Amino acid sequence: MKTNILLPTDFSDNAWSAVVYALKLYANKDCSFYLINSCKSETSSMSIMSNKLLSIMKDAAMKELLELKRMARIVDANEKHSFKIILSTESLLDAINRTIITHNIDLVVMGTKGASKAKELFFGSNTVNVLKKIKSCPVLVVPDEFNFVKPKQIAFPTDYNRLYDDKTLNPLKKISKLHNSKIRILHIQEEKELSKTQNLNIEKLDKNLADFEHSFHWMLDYDKKASVIIDFIEELEINILVMVNHKHSFIENIINEPVVKKIGFHPVTPFMAIPSRK
Fold it and tell me: Which domain holds residue 213?
């Protein structure tokens, strides 16, 4: 059964880095890669000028998509992989949502910043919007200029206050299976002792991941959560960070706060946001 990967692009270097990362991550899987670009015009579609502008934009974007497809085939001479291009005049979010449904997309992979690369921002606006609004599919975000490293270690932070069902954990399991990655479950200890519910959720999580090499780790709440997670990533040489994006989650906090200095989080490794089922 093929895995369907959606690769949004604005033709920036960062977007290309995300494409290359996805190709290498899924090197051993049968995959269909969908390269998608949105060239929605902000001008009135009623005017002749805007129709001409849209036509020019579409022609230019189609040429770039075809070139991107050609480049992908050159760097990825993999018989298991096929490439398709999608040019949309919808907004990027609408285009992604439609494609997820139409092509049964399993994962969206995109860069952190896109064309602007504003230094004070850890995510560009497109990435923030996708993380906020895409609820039907996991999103894997690749830092700017990140070189592929075989993911031997995956970090999975949790406060144990939620019970994760099979569907929620499925993307974590799938990403772990790709390269037999070890799953390192991280709890940042804010409480003096765990509640009955938390202990029960640990037991169920342990059971749910029984077929995967995994371990439980505790770190004291000695700094901002962002700093603790980054320290954990560095200490255990984590290659992918996976988090569930639910209401009031760490992901929700960081995407609502665009400035690195205030939140203290800068993506140092690719990370996957899994939409919450609840």
Answer: 153-275
